[in-house]
Design a protein that fits this description.
mainly beta; Jelly Rolls; Immunoglobulin-like; 5-stranded mixed sheet; 7 helices; neurogenesis; Protein NDNF; heparin binding
Length: 559
């Protein structure tokens, strides 16, 4: 069954009649009926729906055409077409084919004469282009439609496969699918900090008229601005992420990917996507038109896009995007280290920046000493700008370094825990009198289970070859306090920080043979079935004490 050329130019309501009339002389078989049905469905898929947003998928370098015409019985009517590219730039145009009403009527009856067909066939090659556009911006065309004209929309993507959305409407009285933008749709940057940018924009007229159905959504990224929410979502998905639809912003309706973080605070919903080019944030703000974007990186350029969204129709309009660069991070304050002097540094867990100290060497051989008081601390040492040591320290740690006179050393400290950390620091020549006493191989306290009774505990600890003073302290604690007591212990504090009632004894001892430098002590007068915390303090010639690791032991309940 050959199809006349003019069927390609008929609107849907005439296409069916013309096709049926043209095929009246053909014997009707089941296969021909099936063919008619398939052909009808094929053309139906190419007719652009009125009043509905249509998603169109384009293959690279293959044009796609859609048609529309005014419904029969209407003379002239305005119409608008809005095309939204969702990825790469596209080319699109609107063509119009004129046809006389008598001719369309004859086609509907199935009796156009040969001359009219020939004339119209020649005219078909002369369809006029009334609009064309190339780019990736959202573009709207407004025109006047006639029932004696067939309109064709042609779309082409020359870069890669992509998709677009097209919205056609001839009803100008039922309101707008897309929210309206203000006369000045720019986003203004009114404040820039090290980690924040403050933005403001003029209200959409749609927000003022339909406040309950309209909201603003802000998109933040480090790559570039997006001209539509559709384009932004496509870019994020192409990075392996799943961005939730704007309509599905309730926590119960969207399952986050492992690379996503959802934050809900002060009725603002933020979704952070981790992508290869940095993180992309989508923040929905309700109807607020001023917002300070927090938690940005210093000295980084960010791009900001605001979309006003119709929640009922899931349609959006984009403000003109902007960008801003956060301020450079201020140079950290550097403390001067004085030779031989001990300083104690408290590191805030909320501030993960390094605390910096500087020392200019007066000797070729120097030694840095670090005593960890609380938490966990990372130590980083540079000499003349080059790293010479970097590690997480525990307990007491020495770094012996060799260099030249006037070498500049920079010491950086940072807490690696979620709680405050504290450390003591000293730098001195290597031949300088030791700040801390000679330490044993281990600072652990051992208790003997077999020697444990209802009112006594026996403990032991290692000593050194140097005659030193050891003081033992005990503290009664509750069963559920043990972990907390151990966590908040200040390992740099000395016996002076303890209550006098907690002191058990002090004694001196040493042994030239390290294998025999062990001492034991039995603490009596304890309560049965009670938990105790035991501490041993070692004091050397310098007078600065070293605290052994605390030991928690419970006396027997029954004896």
């Amino acid at each position: 069954l050959k199809m006349p050329w003019y069927l390609f130019y008929l609107p849907l309501h005439l296409l069916t009649a013309a096709f049926l009339c043209h095929s009246v002389k053909v014997t009707t078989t089941s296969s021909q009926k099936s063919f008619k049905t398939d052909l009808f469905n094929f053309y139906h898929s190419l007719i652009l729906a009125d009043g509905k947003e249509t998603t169109i998928h384009l293959l690279k370098d293959i044009p796609k055409r859609y048609y529309f015409a005014l419904e029969e019985g209407r003379a002239l009517a305005p119409f608008t077409i809005t095309v939204t590219p969702c990825d790469v730039p596209i080319e699109w145009s609107i063509l119009v084919q004129k046809a006389s009403a008598p001719f369309l009527g004859k086609v509907a009856r199935g009796d156009p004469d040969t001359q009219e067909v020939s004339t119209s066939q020649k005219a078909s090659s002369m369809a006029s282009t009334i609009f064309n556009y190339k780019g990736n911006s959202v573009e709207t065309y407004m025109g006047m439609s006639s029932h004696s004209a067939l309109y064709m929309l042609e779309f082409l993507s020359t870069e890669r496969d992509t998709h677009i959305t097209v919205y056609l409407t001839t009803d100008m009285t039922s309101g707008h699918l897309y929210p309206e933008l203000p006369l000045d749709p720019r986003i203004d940057v009114i404040g820039v900090g090290h980690t924040t940018v403050t933005l403001t924009w003029k209200h959409s007229p749609s927000v003022l008229q339909h406040r309950e159905n309209i909201q603003y959504c802000l998109l933040v990224n480090e790559k570039h601005n997006y001209k539509s929410l559709c384009a932004a979502e496509t870019a994020i998905r192409s990075s392996g992420m799943k961005l939730p639809p704007t309509l599905a912003l309730s926590l119960s309706s969207y399952l986050l990917e492992p690379q996503q973080v959802m934050i809900l605070s002060n009725s603002e919903l933020s979704i952070i996507n981790k992508v290869s080019s940095g993180e992309v944030r989508q923040i929905c703000l309700g109807t607020k038109n001023t917002y300070t974007v927090p938690n940005l990186s210093p000295s980084t350029q960010y791009y900001f896009d605001v979309f006003v969204v119709n929640l009922l129709a899931n349609a959006s309009a984009a403000y003109t995007g902007t960008f801003a660069r956060t301020l450079e991070e201020p140079e950290p304050k550097v403390t001067e280290l004085k030779e031989g002097k001990v300083i104690q540094v408290v590191l805030d867990e909320k501030n993960q920046k390094f605390y910096s100290m500087q020392y200019q060497a007066r000797h070729k051989k120097i030694q840095f000493t670090f005593q960890l008081c609380r938490g966990q601390v990372q130590v980083h040492i540079e000499k003349n700008g080059k790293t010479v040591a970097s590690e997480n320290i525990s307990g007491l740690r020495y770094f012996s370094l060799r260099g030249k006179l006037l070498d500049t050393y920079l010491v950086k400290l940072r807490s690696t825990e979620e709680s405050n950390s504290s450390v003591k620091v000293q730098v001195a020549p290597r031949f300088h009198k030791p700040l801390f006493p000679l330490l044993p191989e281990s600072l652990k306290i051992k208790s003997f289970s077999k020697l444990r009774t209802c009112n006594s505990i026996t403990i032991a600890w290692l000593g050194t070859q140097e005659d030193s003073k050891y003081c033992v302290y005990k503290k009664r604690i509750e069963d559920d306090q043990a972990w907390m007591e151990l966590q908040r212990t200040d390992r740099c504090s000395g016996p002076e920080s303890r209550h006098k009632s907690e002191k058990v004894l002090c004694k001196y001892f040493y042994d030239r043979n390290l294998q025999r430098a062990v001492t034991t002590e039995t603490i009596k007068g304890l309560n049965a079935g009670t938990l105790y915390l035991f501490d041993v303090y070692l004091s050397g010639p310098s007078g600065i004490p070293i605290r052994y690791h605390s030991k928690v032991v419970k006396t027997r309940k029954n004896c």
